[in-house]
Amino acid sequence: MRAAPWAAGLAALVLWAVPCAPARADGDYGPGYRFSTKRHPEWPAGMLELANLTNRVHGFFCGAQHVLFYRGTGPEFQQFLKKYAAIEGIAAHRLLLQPGKGSAKSPRSKTEGIPCDWEIYGYPAGRPAADDPAVADPGKRPYVLEVVLWLGGAIKFENLEIPKGIEVVSPDPR
To answer: Is the pTM above the cut of 0.70?
Structure first.
C-alpha cells in the first residue's frame, strides 16, 4: 500500500522540526543556573564569572544571543563594571544607559517581568567565512558584550566611577 503524497512531506516536516525545536526556541536561565565554559566556549575569558554572579535574577538565550539580568546596589554594579572592563577580546566595552526601570523577561514570556537594575548582552560578531579559523575554534570568534543600566532603578549613574575604556552611550533625547 502506498502512502498519500502529503504523508511523506508531513513525515519530513516532523523529522526536521523535532530535532530543531530546542535550538530554534529561546530558553530561560533561572537565578540558580550555573554556566560552564564547556557549554559556552565562545564566551570571552571573564564572561563566565559575570554570568554566575549570585545577584543574577534571570536570563535567556535565543540562537547565539545571551541576555542576563541582575539586581543589586551601586557598589555591586561598580564591581560588575570593573570585571566587565577587564574582559579582553571583545569588540568594545559599552555601557548603554536606558530610561525607566528594568524588567527581566524573555521575549516569548507571557508573565510579568522580574525587576532588575542592569543586564549584559552578548553574541558572536558576524559570521565567519568557511575557511576562518573561528569556525573550527569558537573561542577565536569575535564577541560583542554590552552592559545596559536602567536609570530609573536603584543605581544612580552620577554616583558611579566608570572604569577606563568603557564607552558610555546615553539614551536618545528625542
So the answer is: yes
